[in-house]
Amino acid sequence: MSTDVTPERVLAEIPTRLRIGDGWREATGGRTFPVANPADGTDLASVADATAADGLAALDAAVAAQASWAATPPRERGEILRRAFEEIHARREELALLITLEMGKPLADAYAEIDYGAEFFRWFAEEAVRIDGGYTVSPNGRGRILVMRQPVGPSLLVTPWNFPLAMATRKIGPALAAGCTVVVKPAEQTPLTTLALAAILEGCGVPAGVVNVVTTSDPAAVVGSLLKDSRLRKLSFTGSTEVGRLLLSQAAGGVLRTSMELGGNAPFLVFADADLDAAVEGALLAKLRNMGEACTAANRFYVQRPVAAEFADRLAKRMAELRVAPGLAEGSQIGPLIDEAGRQKVGTLVDDAVRKGARVLTGGAPLDGPGYFYPPTVLADVPGTADLLTQEIFGPVAPVLAFDTEQEAVALANTTEYGLVAYLYTRDLGRALRTAEALETGMIGLNQGVVSNAAAPFGGVKQSGLGREGGRVGIDEYLETKYVAIAV
Ligand code: NAD
Fold it and tell me: Domain named Aldehyde dehydrogenase: which ranges (predicted)?
């Protein structure tokens, strides 16, 4: 990292006010809330604490800008996104530092998030000019069917704290490409990266009112009043299934278009014929990327009995070697969890599994000292009644269980209300395809531990959500279809 990119300098340059319309403003009443560093619990900055009225002011700005943004040539919309892609890369050192400071992930993971997150702007810059429609002769030959696709309109984008840059670009990219204006409501734990992104977009030529950002410590009030406003046309939410359900019920009042990227409980299946080295390396990625604080994190490891003990031992050995340290420390591979509540949840789930008979192969207890550190943990012989098999762990804990047959593995994998992603390791092509077809998830990592890719449709089934982000279909979430019946 360059010597002039220091936490002090980067934090001093972050806008901490609300981005509404053509400027930056304090929250009504001037209230602010603090943003903490999970590596030591100290405050990094204070940001404006928006009220419901501020949220509505942001919607006013988005509504005012909607018509002219929709009429902006698609190429121009794409070029703005493309410039923002370049600018994120040009400023990657500052952004990585900021992500690590407010979210805790190791700097190397922050750089990986920047590469992934920026890609949504490049991808949707290219998609902006490919919005198409259709022209068909009616089956009876007497009419014509013209199909056009138009921006859905002002959209509310609510994002989580675990990927503060990528979860924002994954929504802003397709929305802007489609011609929608947005109000972004970042998570209260990590508002700084979104504010930095708004400044970048402004510098790249996004017109006033097209991207508005409201930071708040009271998301229920701000989001709740926006969802009641009939000028809002779309909600795109990424976060927990619990909050997603609540917002879906609130969105029902206005029959709002919704996209929901919710929680996961990913199974990781290893068959006896798999390349075990590759499976262990894939497991490390699927489990420990972002300290396990990812909706795609492998939550349950099902390993065929002949290789189950060896897999668990090898995984434990590799996980025990990793360096747990503040994300800015040299060589850090595992940073702190987001806050004490997150760490306590992980600890409670591990204690429950151990009380019910699981064996700790490595880790198993929180680390002393400042910050919310929990070490990589492998649990073997986990009983089927353990709570961590049904709940999202959101921490660096890998429960390993043995299975005997392919049918049993699929049944175990599908025993969850979630359906975001599954990982599958086998060298048998027939088994790979059969299993991939039978797994009830929106995504599958076949012999690979990471599925996220801006060019692919990301999303879940069952209670993991509705809709897809990224890929060719990602822009559809922000487009309405209109058809004109033509008499000829
Ligand atoms: P969360 O549901 O607590 O919060 C997500 C967002 O919703 C935040 O912006 C928060 O301020 C807001 N929010 C919280 N309560 C609200 C309320 N009552 N009304 C309106 N808004 C409210 O989730 P989190 O803890 O920030 O993120 C972790 C969760 O996100 C995990 O469950 C994870 O699986 C999920 N996630 C899913 C994906 C995906 O693509 N499927 C990606 C990342 C994270």
Answer: 24-484
| Active site positions, annotated | 261
Q: What is the signed CA dihedral for 158, 164, 169, 175, rounded to 10 degrees?
A: 10
The reported pLDDT for the residue numbered 3 is 85
Which ligand 1 atom sits nearest the alpha carbon of residue 187? 9
Q: Is 290 left (phi over 0), alpha (psi -120 to 50) or beta?
A: left
Domain ranges of the chain: 7-263+465-487, 266-415+421-453
Q: Looking up tokens 């990119």, which residue turns up? A: 5
CA gap 463, 393 in Å, rounded: 16
As a dihedral over the C-alpha atoms of residue 9, residue 289, residue 191, residue 1, rounded to 10 degrees, the angle is 10
Ligand 1 centroid to residue 75 C-alpha, Å = 33
Q: Which residues line ligand 1 (CB under 6 A)?
A: 158-162, 167, 185, 187-188, 219-220, 223, 238-240, 243, 246-247, 261-264, 295, 392, 420, 460, 465
Rounded Cα gap, residues 450 and 281, in angstroms: 11
Dist. CA 394 → ligand 1 center (Å)? 12
Note the pLDDT of residue 17. Answer: 98
Q: Is the alpha carbon torsion for 234, 240, 244, 246 positive or negative?
A: negative
How would you classify the pairing of strands 465-466 and 257-261?
antiparallel
Stretch 133-137: mean pLDDT: 98
Question: Which residue CA neighbors atom 17 of ligand 1 most closely?
Answer: 220
Per-residue pLDDT at 259: 98
Complex confidence, ipTM: 0.95
- Look at residues 408, 390, 392, 398 and name the one whose alpha carbon lies nearest to residue 358: 398
For residues 331, 284, 293 and 369, what is the CA-based torsion angle, rounded to 10 degrees?
A: -50
**Strands, E, within 199-297: which ranges?**
211-213, 234-238, 257-261, 266-270
pLDDT above 90 covers a percentage of the chain that reads 99
Q: Superfamily for 7-263+465-487?
A: Aldehyde Dehydrogenase; Chain A, domain 1 (3.40.605.10)
d(CA 296, CA 451): 8
Residue-wise pLDDT for 252-291, tens only, equals 999 999 999 999 999 999 999 999 999 999 999 999 999 9
What is the C-alpha separation between 365 and 378, in angstroms, rounded?
11
Nearest in space to 19 (alpha carbons), one of 207, 204, 164, 198:
198
Give, for ligand 1, the residue of 189, 194, 240 to mutate: max count of ligand atoms closer than 8 Å to Cβ: 240
CA of 407 to the centre of ligand 1 (A): 33
CATH topology of domain 266-415+421-453: Aldehyde Dehydrogenase; Chain A, domain 2 (3.40.309)
